[in-house]
Amino acid sequence: MIGPVARTDAAVARAGGQVFRALPGQVQLALLALGVLIAISACSVAWLDYQSYTPSPNVCRHDQVTQAAALGCVPPQPIPAPAGFER
């Protein structure tokens, strides 16, 4: 499945490159500047959004539970079953 998709993506990229090269130089430069401006804006928004990120705890694997204190990881906690649910 990935083969046909990769070929299609490559064909679309080639066609887009041909269309871009057919444009006048000033239009190419304007599109490139606009793309860089959009990329800088997107990175700035992502960076500002990342400021409130708190990392999740380092959860131990099942075979590391006995050494949790030495490894600095948190043992997994059992998830309580929802009300009215039986196993």
Descriptive notes:
By secondary structure, the protein is mostly helical. It has one domain (2-71). Helices cover 59% and strands 0% of the residues. It contains three helices and no strands. The chain has helices at residues 2-22, 25-50, 68-71. The longest helix is centred in the middle third of the chain and has 26 residues, at 25-50. The radius of gyration is 25 Å and the shape is elongated. 0% of the residues are buried.
Secondary structure elements and pairings:
Blueprint: H1 2-22, H2 25-50, H3 68-71
Transmembrane segments: 29-48
Keywords: Membrane, Transmembrane, Transmembrane helix
Kindly summarize this structure in a few lines.
This protein has three helices and no strands. The protein has helices spanning 2-22, 25-50, 68-71.
Structural class: mainly alpha
- How many beta strands in the DSSP annotation? 0
Distance between the termini: 39 Å
Helical amount: 55-70%
Principal-axis shape: elongated
The amount of beta strand, in percent, is under 5%
Largest sheet: number of strands, sense, barrel closure: none
Order of helices and strands: HHH
Oligomeric composition of the shown chains: single chain
Number of domain modules:
1
Q: Please report the number of helical segments.
A: 3
CA radius of gyration is: 25 Å
Low-confidence runs of at least 5 consecutive residues: none
Average per-residue pLDDT, rounded, comes to: 85
